[in-house]
Amino acid sequence: TYDDNNDHSNQNNDTISTNNNDDNNNNTNNNGLLGKMMERTGKEFIINESFSLAASIEDQQRLHSVKLSFNKYCGVQEWKNALFLWVNLGMNDSPNEFLEDARCVTWFGGSRMHDDSPVVQKLIRYGKEGMGAATKQEKQEEEGAIIDSAGSAGTDSSSNIILWCRRYQPEEKKFSPYVCFGRLGYQSHVPGSRPLSFVWELLDYDGLKHHGDDTVRETFDTFTKM
Known about the structure:
Elements: H1 27-30, H2 43-54, H3 57-62, E1 76-78, E2 83-89, E3 98-99, E4 104-108, H4 118-142, E5 161-169, E6 174-175, E7 179-190, E8 197-202, H5 205-209, H6 214-225
Parallel strand pairs: 2-5
Antiparallel strand pairs: 1-2, 3-4, 4-8, 5-6, 5-7, 7-8
């Protein structure tokens, strides 16, 4: 869902860098997070886990005793060189949905977010860079790269936007823990729309659909078909 606070991405963590070299640009895959449901509910657990897994060594040393802050009502988490998008599914008032056989997903900015908002410009820039990397990846796959059993395409493509989804469980009257559905590339948005309406492409779609773990494939199907 979206709310009036979604245009206020967390500004205390936007000085934290994630590792972004060739060995770490697919952290969600390499650390086994792709398609896996987190152990605990809520954003705080993801913020801390992501920091421990992907933050630069310098930032881990600088902030080892600092409690990381975030806005639990915000639909985007901003880091220095990465963005997390949070998506709620399964509620009647949730506008989010998967499109094109779950190859794409919608996302809506906050009611005060507009085309010139810094975080929107950052999303579009990162998203387009991610699509450029995806095009390179597709070319490499055509030349013989094979998706391995862990869901990684085995290339150096990267994106700095990561999708986290949770689904409302009506029988328990609460949300599930978040699941990481990997990297996003920009497909389109509607300029001037209120709230701003985006469509993002799941760059790890093949990795999720053909993952070697049955639970990952089942979770992805459950989240995207309901």
